Amino acid sequence: MLLKNDVTRYHYLITLHTICSIAFIIRFIVLCTDLSSAKKDSIAFPIIILLLELGSSFVTFIANLCYVFLRYIGSILFESDRENVGCCSQSFAWNLSTLTCFRCECYLEYPQLISITRFNILIAFEIIRFIGFILACVCASRYSPIGVGYAILAAFSFIPSLWLLIVEYLHYRRLWFHYHPDVSSDEKREYDSHHLRFLPLALTNDQQTSYWQKSRCNKGNNCLSRNLYHVIMYHSSNTRYPPEQTTDGQIVIGFHQTSHASAASIAKTNFKPGQSGWIGPGIYFATSLDHTEFKANQFGAYICAKVNLGKTRRITAPQQWPSTEEYDTVYYQHPIGADEFCVHDPKQILSWIILIDQDPNKQLLEQRNILPLSSGKYIEDRLEDITYRGCFI
Ligand SMILES: [Zn+2]
Questions:
Q1: In which residue ranges of the chain is CATH 3.90.228 found?
Q2: Rounded to whole angstroms, what are the CA distances from 62 to 96, 98, 99, 105?
Q3: What is the edge-to-edge ordering of all strands in the sheet holding 329-332?
Q4: How does strand 195-200 pair with strand 349-356?
Q5: What pLDDT shows up at residue 125?
Q6: Transmembrane ranges (predicted)?
Q7: What CA dihedral angle connects 340, 341, 346 and 348, to 10 degrees?
Q8: What is the separation of C-alpha 180 from the centre of its chain, rounded to a whole number of angstroms?
Q9: Helices (H), the chain
Q10: Are 342 and 283 in contact (CB under 8 A)?
Q11: What's the confidence (pLDDT) of residue 150?
Q12: pLDDT for 176-195, tens place per residue?
């Protein structure tokens, strides 16, 4: 996979954006020169091209300036994510600078659409520029030499722009389709059909907002969405998902924490039920991601799953768990809300997404004898969270 390294992508973006911006300034100067020297009857052609340029390249030029500004000055200007400077909040400023300010409700359920929107906006701008270029080519001979000069410049400017589009598309694919923590072997990766994908923990809401644990989903704890993408992206940390009642066949959200190596294995061959546990043998889930921190024995990878409880026995003390195989799930209603449940059959786990902590506490993992991936590292395919901080693209 090209552009495996996130830092490389970031360098590409900076270089290509700089080249595109310089090319835009030169084209703009050429157009203005053309306008100032044009006769009154021939002014329409450069004006249309100028408008097309302003509607496309100028917008990206301003967005890129805004991005650089926010990257270096943003943390000084905005103390928290929701704080406004003038009428502009930090999250809106980031959305503007990454061309993702156009948002609709569906993005909450499908956050991957945010990065594809940016890609589509970039394509739309290139199409607008291409129209300007065609117009310049058609009319170039009539307004030579400046018209010809502009057409040649515009043609060359498409090279970095197309390159930029390729980089952004590869990035989108890598983030949402090809991100795997385990890339040591070249063997074809075949995952269990219930495994949706791996995602880096750095991408989730709590890692992204400067206002710690403030969900970007305005519904907060009252949110009814049970879409795994939504849960992970916007309620990944302290939102709790304990069902008030547990009816047979109920589908709930569960959280499980394990090691990097076990997560890689689960992705390929599904969960393996444990032989014992304090509410019986099976696969254990907490009802919030935070609770896995003190419930798990293995650390480094978080699994968020949609689970069918099947036939459920709800208990209020651990010793009440039934030893018969009469129930599919034992649900332990914890006195202080740290509920957990144990499912007996992996088939009850309908789908899951695995979040990878890219900066695990290696010392702690080694002390507890938690094994790394087969390569000897805890993380091989790394996404640099600095390039995502403050925005989500
Ligand atoms: Zn929500």
A1: 195-382
A2: 9, 10, 10, 26
A3: 195-200, 349-356, 301-308, 251-258, 283-286, 340-343, 329-332, 312-315
A4: parallel
A5: 93
A6: 12-31, 43-70, 121-143, 149-170
A7: -110
A8: 14
A9: 6-37, 44-55, 57-77, 90-97, 106-109, 112-140, 146-176, 205-208, 228-234, 260-269, 292-295, 362-367
A10: yes
A11: 82
A12: 888 887 776 656 678 999 99
Give 19: exposed, middle or buried? Use CB within 10 Å, 0-12, 13-18, 19+: middle
Q: So what's the pLDDT on residue 143?
A: 65
Q: What's the pLDDT at 80?
A: 64
- The two tokens of residue 275 are 């032989």
Greatest pairwise CA separation for the chain in angstroms: 93
Answer whether 294's CB lies under 8 Å from 334's CB. no
Of 338, 280, 288, 336, residue with least CA distance to 312 = 280
pLDDT at 221 over 80: no
- Residue 301 confidence (pLDDT): 92
Q: Amino acid identity, residue 220?
A: G
Ligand 1 centre from 186 Cα, in Å? 38
- Strand duo 329-332 + 312-315: pairing: parallel
Secondary structure letter of residue 306 according to DSSP: E
Q: How far away, in angstroms, is 216 Cα from ligand 1 center?
A: 8
Residue 255 alpha carbon to ligand 1 centre in Å = 16
CB atoms within 10 A of CB 74: 20
223 phi, psi to nearest 5 deg: -65, 135
pTM, 2 dp: 0.84
Indicate if the pLDDT at residue 390 is higher than 60.
Answer: no
Residues of the chain with pLDDT > 70, as a percent, come to 87
Count of C-beta atoms within a 10 Å radius of residue 365: 18
Share of the chain above pLDDT 90, in %: 23
- Phi (first) and psi of residue 125, to 5 degrees: -65, -40
Say how far apart CA 204 and CA 215 lie, in whole Å: 10
Between the CA of 110 and the centroid of ligand 1 the distance, in Å, is 12
| 239 in Cβ contact with 291 (< 8 Å) | no
Residues surrounding ion ligand 1 at CB below 5 Å = 217, 219, 223, 225, 234
CATH topology of domain 195-382: Phosphoenolpyruvate Carboxykinase; domain 3 (3.90.228)
For residue 262, what are its two tokens? 């076990």
CA of residue 220 to ligand 1 center, whole Å: 6
